[in-house]
Structures are given as C-alpha cells and as structure tokens.
Write a structure and sequence with these properties.
The chain is α+β, with helices and mostly antiparallel strands. 16% of the residues lie in helices and 41% in strands. The protein has a single domain, classed as Roll (Thiol Ester Dehydrase, Chain A), CATH 3.10.129.
C-alpha cells in the first residue's frame, strides 16, 4: 500500500519577508506567510488598518483598499515563495510580468484580515505562474493569475 507523501508546511515571518522582498513600508503588503509548501502554494496574511496612507484618498469618509494593492499583495506573496524556494546563494529579486483574469468581488476595508491564497500553475526556468485568491473571512474578494520572473539582484539573466 502506498504511503502518503507528507509535506512540511513552513511559515515566513516579517523579518524573513524583509530578507526575501525589496519592498518596505508603505508598499510592503504582506505581514506574514503561512502554510508554505515549497514553491507550490502558501497563504499570505495582510492586516488592513485605517492608518495606511492609501485610505487618506481612497476614499475619504468611506475607506476601501484599492484593488491594485490586493493584486500587489498576491504578487508579493508569490514572489516571497519563489525566493524562499530558490536554492541560489546570490540575492534574488522577482519581477512581476503578467496579470490575467482579475476579478474584484467585494470591497476590503480597514479592520479586515486578507489572506492571499496562492497556488503554482506552472514553472519554466526562472519564471513562475500562480493563481491567487484574496479572501476575507473565507469569502473571495479578489482573484487573479500572475506571472513573475526571478533574477539575480540587479541582473537580467536567470543565473
């Protein structure tokens, strides 16, 4: 009888995220990543707070998180997953390449906890494609397919 393959799920805290991603406040849109399964899947966590700068103008009196920031949060989550899975000792950077099939389902507001559920669709050399769903309280608020390319920091080659 075949034994099921056990996968160890790992977590990426904010300190490790700062090592993996070049983004910093106010543009770092992931607070933590949980349930990492190599470069296959993970869940990024974003705690949305009223003191974030986008809420000063989007929209005064009715703060709503811009949809483009939800997509960026998905991209950052997938990018950190790619860097973590990389075996290279050289610093890596992930460039956002494509975005497809984006849908916004429900507004995200201060006080929400967004979960970016990312699943790998494909990988070819230094390029990855992911499908993502942003969820609040288990409800999908945004979905998209994203493509990214990882290169050595400051380089335009794949190794």
């Amino acid at each position: 009888m075949d034994q099921p393959v056990m996968t160890e799920l790992t977590t990426v805290d904010i300190q490790k995220l700062l090592d993996f991603l070049p983004h910093r406040y106010p543009f770092l849109l992931v607070d933590r990543i949980i349930d990492c399964n190599a470069d296959e899947s993970c869940i990024g966590i974003k705690n949305v707070t009223i003191n974030e700068p986008q809420f000063q103008g989007h929209f005064p009196g009715k703060p709503i998180m811009p949809g483009v920031l939800l997509v960026e949060g998905m991209a950052q989550t997938a990018g950190a997953l790619c860097v973590q899975a990389s075996k290279s000792k050289r610093p890596r950077i992930v460039y956002f390449m494509t975005i497809d099939k984006v849908k916004f389902r429900k507004p995200v507001v201060p006080g929400d906890r967004v979960e970016f559920h990312m699943k790998k669709l494909n990988r070819r050399r230094n390029m990855w494609w992911y499908r993502g769903e942003a969820k609040v309280d288990g409800q999908v608020v945004c979905e998209a397919e994203l493509g990214a390319m990882m290169v050595a920091d400051g380089q335009d080659d794949d190794e």
